[in-house]
UniProtKB/TrEMBL annotation:
Family (UniProt): Belongs to the ABC transporter superfamily.
Annotated GO MF terms: ATP binding
Name this protein carries in UniProt: ATP-binding cassette domain-containing protein
Alphabetized UniProt keyword annotations: ATP-binding, Nucleotide-binding, Transport
InterPro entries: AAA+_ATPase, ABC_transporter-like_ATP-bd, ABC_transporter-like_CS, DrrA1/2-like_C, P-loop_NTPase
Taxon lineage: Bacteria, Bacillati, Actinomycetota, Actinomycetes, Pseudonocardiales
UniProt keyword annotation of Transport present: yes
Keyword S-adenosyl-L-methionine: no
Length: 302
């Protein structure tokens, strides 16, 4: 049996003269949390809608477990759209049961799953409330329940953390990690890059309808500029200004953050720091996802 991976293979989509996707390609492995990031209009939502089957592509293919995604496969996808898609005047419990039945669950199993997920996501007290009467945060929780209520084999979530309070973010994060631990491929987009960096096994950065780069943060950082954190409490401001190949990013309270150009010897920096007095810390800092994103996304989205 092939691995239950979700594959996006050279998907292209055009709207008249506007090219939304240009051979978009990436893979979300079974049991993996994959962060899908890019500027507004970069093509993330279009990609997700094609994976779900809401939109058709002009070319390319979506596969799951090595086979083209079919209508039957799509019954097993849990999808959370960015614009949300709940019936505003329908009661929470009835709505979740209804959606579960649309995905093939029996009435009894659907009601049971609805109860379990509303409890798990902290909205059990709202089961008999109409969706439009809920706070935006609780609507978000119900929308996630709608994506999970049929026990999906694939999860595709568009900005699932948007508008959530910190407690709800923690709950949703834990749920996504649990689903991945069950072997479900999970892909989600988000502009909250610190959250993506913390949660995801791998990340894909999109620009102008194309996957520019993907991998772990560590892998994506390999070719980025080296940064140093130097704590030299007696060092005067400007001590590193004259060093060849060195850019001073920040100096505060004896702590200096530096960026080294290609081929610059960090030992020369250490020698200069020691010349000012004791050095309490001298360490390379890891490039953050925010820094990587800024470096990669150099063009505005379409």
């Amino acid at each position: 049996m092939p691995d239950q991976n979700l594959e996006i293979d050279k998907i292209s989509k055009r709207y008249g003269d506007v090219v939304a996707l240009r051979e978009m390609s990436f893979e979300v492995r079974a049991g993996e949390l994959f962060g899908f990031v890019g500027s507004n209009g970069a093509g993330k939502t279009t990609t997700m809608r094609i994976a779900l089957g809401v939109l058709s592509s002009d070319s390319g293919e979506v596969r799951f477990g090595g086979e083209p995604v079919t209508l039957e496969t799509r019954r097993h996808i849990g999808y959370m759209p960015e614009e949300r898609g709940l019936y505003p005047k329908m009661k929470v419990g009835e709505q979740l049961s209804y959606l579960a039945r649309l995905h093939g669950l029996s009435p009894r199993a659907a009601a049971k799953s609805s109860d379990e997920w509303t409890e798990r996501l902290g909205v059990e007290a709202k089961r008999n409330d109409e969706v439009e009467k809920l706070s935006l945060g609780n609507q978000q929780r119900v929308q996630l329940a709608a994506a999970l209520v049929h026990d999906p084999r694939i999860l595709v979530l568009d900005e699932p953390f948007s508008g959530l309070d910190p407690v709800a973010v923690d709950v949703m994060s834990q749920v996504l990690k649990e689903k991945a631990a069950e072997g479900v491929p999970v892909v989600f987009s988000s502009h909250q890059l610190d959250l993506v960096e913390r949660l995801c096994d791998r990340i894909g950065i999109v620009r102008s309808g194309q996957m520019v780069t993907s991998g772990t943060v560590a892998e994506l950082s390999v070719d980025s500029a080296v940064r140093l954190l130097v704590h030299a409490p007696d060092a005067p401001r400007g001590w590193a200004d004259g060093l060849a190949g060195v850019t001073v990013l920040r100096h505060e309270n004896g702590r200096t953050e530096l960026e080294l150009g290609a081929g610059t010897d960090d030992q020369a920096v250490l020698k200069a720091a020691l010349a000012t007095g004791p050095v309490h810390e001298f360490a390379r800092s890891r490039t953050s996802l925010t820094d990587l994103f800024r470096n990669v996304v150099t063009e505005p989205g379409e």
